[in-house]
Amino acid sequence: MRITRRKHLLVASVACFFLLLVTALRAFDPGFVSSIRLLGFDGYQRFWPREQGEFPVRIVDIDERSLAVHGQWPWRRDMLAKLTEALADMGAAAIAYDVIFAEPDRLSPHRYVPDLDLGGDITAASLAGKLPDTDKVFAAAIAEAPVVLGYAVLPDASGGKPPVKAGVSYAGSDPVASVPAFASTLNSLTVLEAPAAGSGGVSLSSRDTAGIVRRIPMVFTDGKTLFPSLVMEALRVAQGASGFIVRSSDASGEIDVGTAGVTDIKVGAIPFPTTAQGEFWVYFNEDRADRYVSVADVLDPARRAETVALIEGHVVFVGTSSVGLYDIRATPLGDLVPGVSVHAQAAEQILAGTFLSRPDWADGTEVIVTFVLGLIVIALVLSLGSIWAAAIGGVIAFGLYAGAIHLFRTEGLLLDPVYPTAVNLFVVYAAATALLYFLTEREKRFVRAAFGQYLAPEMVKRLETAPDSLKLGGEMRDMTILFMDVRGFTPISEQLTPTDLVAFLNALLSPLSDEIQNRDGTIASISATASWPSGMPPWMSRPTPHRLAGRRWRWSASPSA
Question: What are residue 338's DSSP bridge partners?
Fold first, then answer.
């Protein structure tokens, strides 16, 4: 039937429009689309977090107990000098401070004594000259220990640039072009930075959304030079290495120079993969207590033997878990952890060799899968109907999810099945099904209106479900036609009252109409006309309707001449 062909063409056209829209959104990848993908990646980690294990990484925590014992933060720098010396004496392989000492110690005695009114012969200035400068005390401790200090990226040019502590080499094209450049950085004091063994960035990725930490930059650049992260510097200093190697995707000549991105970095003897922008996907596990050592325990002589076993030979990150110091981050596991835990877990992950990666072919593959799956859904809806399309589409979606999960668990690959399946099926399938339902209901209404008065109800239902069976000009069939008349109906009607006449017609015609309808027959027309004796009241000449066998019958009576 021409109307059905038009219907299918219209449904296909509208569904293809939505499919092209969905595919274009995935190709251009606006913020809300990438958010859907990242939430899917969070689900991977939430269901299958990184396995626990023993790795030479510890967090020396400025926790609530440490603040209760040693006073509120910030501590005097000579206190930090004692902490640094204690960690070095315990055999820490590297001491990385997730703290930026950007200003002089305002608690240093030589700074606030000149403001005091001492009286007598002792002047404040002369006394201040004899008091220690705690920044210099801390710097002296840093010079004798494998210390890495941090710097943070600034959005404007109000800061400076990090000091260069490590050599950088690269394989392939210059990675500076693919790493986002910073305007300036907030650094620790020069007096502290100069003797430090390393300097690393503590800033997190600006690409992560909703405050959830998923990636951390491993290299930073000012547009000319590469600078390492805190994690990289801690691992470099712990190994005694002099630099790191950055490898670009064209290192083996696969693509043209200038279009490459970072693929992996090697620090000392340890390689690890990164994104094209030099960021590292962090694979989290639960923030367990045995990863932490309180500063109060490190500085407690009574617990030295116990603490040495936890610190010796370990990469130590110094940070805070105190809520009041506002360094709390959200992870894909749904946990709130100290910011220093992010760096520690990244270091653990690198040492364990358990990596997550987003292959460079992932985006193109997901765009193709989105488009092909949408075409399959449209074809299924038009050929098999919405129910079978939903069932088969669900099986395909299940297969895509199972494949993506398998690759995540076995290869650490981050592939997105959510957008190609959930979004695609919802939008394309919903559009095709809704329009098909609307057009089908309109066809049924047309059939009921056109044939409901002439065909048996069963025949009308058949035409509603199969409107293609209607053919212009009709078709040739063997038919049986029954014509019925009531002989002597006029004399009979003259002898009966109207009520009796209706009962007579019902008794005669109801069994006949029931049998005709049971055999899918059609009752073309039934009418009865009665002539009444003269003098009958005027109301009896009006047509009086009544129902017979589910149909509306009409008979009329008029006075006889």
Answer: 328
Give strand pairing partners of 328. 338
Token look-up 């029954």 returns 482
Distance, CA of 447 to CA of 196 (rounded, Å):
87
Residue 77 to residue 557: CA distance in whole angstroms: 116
Distance of alpha carbon 76 from alpha carbon 320, whole angstroms: 16
**Chain position carrying tokens 């099904």:** 433
Rounded to an integer, what distance in angstroms lies between the CA atom of residue 97 and that of residue 178? 28
Q: Work out the number of other CB atoms within 10 angstroms of the CB of residue 476.
A: 5
What's the rounded Cα separation, in Å, for the pair 492 and 504?
10
DSSP 362: H
The one-character DSSP state at 419 is I
- Of 161, 266, 165, the closest CA to residue 223 belongs to 161
Here the tokens at position 260 are 């490459």
Q: Is the bond into 74 cis (omega within 30 degrees of 0)? A: yes
- Contact 40/420 with Cβ under 8 angstroms? no
Say how far apart CA 304 and CA 177 lie, in whole Å: 48
Taking CA atoms, 430 is separated from 4, 16, 378, 537, in Å, by: 20, 12, 10, 63
Q: Which comes out higher in pLDDT, residue 118 or 235? A: 235
- Nearest of 279, 228, 249, 232 to residue 174 by alpha carbon: 249
The single-letter code of the amino acid at 129 is G
Specify the DSSP element, H or E, that contains 376.
helix 362-384
279-281/270-273 β-pairing: unpaired
Which pLDDT score is estimated for 555? 40
One-letter identity of residue 403 = G
- Please state, rounded to an integer, the average pLDDT across all residues of the chain: 82
Quote the CA–CA distance of 70 and 82 in Å, as a whole number: 12
Rounded Cα distance between 400 and 416, Å, is 9
What is the pTM (predicted TM-score) of this model? Answer: 0.76
Rounded Cα gap, residues 71 and 69, in angstroms = 6
Please give the helix or strand (H or E) that residue 515 lies within, else none.
helix 498-518
pLDDT tens string 318-355:
999 988 888 899 999 988 999 999 999 999 999 999 99
State both tokens at 92: 């820490």
pLDDT class for 312, splitting at 50, 70, 90?
very high
Nearest to 250, CA basis, from 170, 181, 355: 170
Query: What helix, strand, coil percent values describe the chain, rounded to 5?
Result: 50, 20, 35
CB 201, CB 151: distance < 8 Å: yes
Question: Is the separation of the CB atoms in 225 and 174 below 8 Å?
Answer: no
Give residue 421's identity as a one-letter amino acid code: T
Q: Are 410 and 462 in contact (CB under 8 A)?
A: no
In SS3 terms, 214-255 reads as: CEEECEEECCCCEEEEHHHHHHHHHHCCCEEEEEECCCCCCC
Number of other residues whose CB lies within 10 A of the CB of residue 190: 10
Beta bridge partners of 246: 170, 265
Residues 6+ apart with CB under 8 A from 490: 530, 531
